[in-house]
Amino acid sequence: MTQARIIDGRAEAERLRAEVALEVASLKAEHGLTPGLAVVLVGDDPASQVYVRSKGEQTLAAGMLSVTHRLPGHVGQDELLALVQSLNADPAIHGILVQLPLPSGLDEKAIILAIDPDKDVDGLHVVNAGRLSQGLPALVPCTPLGCMILLNRTLPSLAGLHAVVVGRSVLVGRPVAQLLLQADCTVTIAHSRTRNLPEICRQADILVAAVGRPLMIQGDWIKPGATVIDVGINRVPFRDPVKAAEGKTKLVGDVAYKAALEVAGAITPVPNGVGPMTVACLLANTVTAAKRIHGL
Ligand code: GUN
Fold first, then answer.
1. Residues 222 and 270 in one domain
2. Strand, helix or coil at 254?
3. Mean pLDDT of all residues belonging to the chain
């Protein structure tokens, strides 16, 4: 058996960003429209700060307007809601993203519900989830959208394939299952209470792992030739005791990658698989939102 094809998420993300930049240039030239993305960061979580800086830089690099609002962790619910409402009303802003998780004490659901669904580039508002579940035009969460782009670039057709999604989160599992259904897959959603999980995974032509458990999906859970999309980003200590003692960590996915390489037909690595697609899809969603708001 030959080794699986490694799906290059970094290259695909670069391609998508270049496409977005071209579209932004033509929206500016033909319609005088510059898509604008506002990112709201509350508190000083280090990982969130890194993500938010990267989102801002990539937004600017694509030729769009980027606005970042940084609020202290002790900000009140009303003040945060007032900011979201002012962004809803701002005609220069077409996309609003409130970086999650929010510090405790803030009602995350209420904040997301306050975002204008037509500017909800995270696709987390119930209106967008509802539109997606009915197959209507929606703003779709970025990571699931990235998974679908990688699948469509890997497989000639998705129709009729059995897709197994492991995980049922609002951010990934549920929306990616909806997108796979829309692409005419037969979809199974598995989760922490699923019985015979290995057996169900072995039936998958497409296996999407989005559980957040390091290396949980074993090589012998994978059907030979299957396409494996690993959404997991887990930080774990090195196995090498010297590195581990230095407190060094590495990123691993939800799939036992080395074993999976020997069985799968194609697989996304961690890092540089699904991860880079997420911000690229955020940029794409901002362009989609700007066009829809302006009836283009
Ligand atoms: N934090 C980690 N991932 C995400 C995401 O996709 N959207 C938001 N808003 N926050 C996140």
1. yes
2. coil
3. 97
**pTM for the complete prediction?**
0.96
Residue of 41, 50, 51, 145 with the most ligand 1 atoms within 8 Å of its CB, for mutation: 51
pLDDT higher than threshold 70 for residue 232: yes
What is the C-alpha R_g of the chain? 20
Q: Which pLDDT does position 247 carry in this prediction? A: 87
Name the H helices within 121-196: 126-133, 142-154, 173-182
Reading phi first (left if > 0) and then psi (alpha if -120 to 50, else beta), residue 156 is in: alpha
Cα of 181 vs centre of ligand 1, distance in Å, is: 23
Both 231 and 156 in a single domain? yes
Mean pLDDT of 185-197: 97
> Cα of 143 to ligand 1 centre, how many Å?
9
On whether both 47 and 147 belong to a single domain, the answer is: no
Residue 97: CB within 6 Å of ligand 1? yes
For residues 270 and 253, is the Cβ–Cβ distance under 8 A?
Answer: yes
**Domain match, 173 and 83 both:** no
Question: Over 80: is that where the pLDDT of 1 sits?
Answer: no
Contacts of 135 (CB under 8 A, 6+ apart): 182
